[in-house]
Amino acid sequence: MKLRCPICGKTYDEPVQRCECGEPVEFELFEGEPYIGKSVWERFWDFWPVEPALEFSLGEGDTPLVKSRLGDGFGVKLYLKNETVNPTWSFKDRGTFLAMSYALKAGYKAVGTVSTGNMAASVSAYASRFGLKAKILVSESASDEKLKAVSVYGGEVIRVFGDYGRLYFESLKLGEKLGVYFINSDNPFRIEGYKGIAFEIAEELTPDYILIPTSSGGLFRGVAKGFIELYENGLIDSIPKLIAVQAKGCSPICKAFLEGKEKVERFENPETIAKAIANPYPPSGNAVLRLLREFGWGCVSVSDDEIRKAQTELATEGLFVQPASATGVAALKKLNLPEGAKVVSILTGSGLRALKDAPAGKITECPLEGLKNCLR
Q1: Through-space distance between the first and last CA atoms of the chain, rounded to whole angstroms
Q2: Are both 177 and 218 inside the same structural domain?
Q3: In terms of residue numbers, what domain contains 294?
Q4: The pLDDT of residue 204 is above 90
């Protein structure tokens, strides 16, 4: 199966990660049909670029699609794709599992990633599961508390001093020389793993809109490719309108989109509580920008106050998510969608990953002797 650059169109027969032009590559569209199977990996077997190593699966994917009351105020039917129930609490596990399946088949002994959050934990956990060494590269500012959830799986966590923005590209170069397969944010196998979100949604629902928290752009590209493949194979009648959602304090893709620019530029002085999507220079930014324009999709940015409010509203539905996950619901207020539209918002990660920024609930103190009054 060939890889293709979505920007310049150059194709590759070997599994490279980025094109000579500097942009990320992706697998060409797959043809196939669904099967009966327990997992998304089995049901959509024809659509993966590598045979999933099912014996090492941790049960990633097949996450619930929850009907939400929060759409009632906007006159839409809102559904929440709850990716927080994946093994390491985020959507990253889907892409990690498929990329790890390739690394094992290709004979790699070590894998790596550049991350301080969800992806770091995911790669560290799955490397242990697959019996591979893990090299997790983090910035010098990463807190010890945050890294406990990464190092606990046994992977080697390496603090890197210097320009963290260059680290993504340096990791790919050094990985090739040292035999370490880096599964970064827009690794082509990772993108393929994210297609499962689109496949699962389509099994249950024919949505009109999909709200996708967007950072590096890998998740957006994966969900988009999933729906495009379903449509091209005649498995769905139309492709839903995809909306990239970013935090206003770090919104390089939305900025380029709204200003009509051809390429995404670095977002200066980023500041937002939605740190999981705060990438000032997203490696898949131009690829996402191209998709938005080609299909007539949209991009919306939301403020930290709007994110906090949406995070609190989701908690009233029994769902505790990290700030980045709440951006989709926050965007509803700005979209003015048609009455009765079916909308899916992807909840990308658990609030347990960002307790520092979690909204505080009411706590009442009460002496045992006066408990009766407190319970009234």
Answers
A1: 66
A2: no
A3: 65-90+189-357
A4: yes
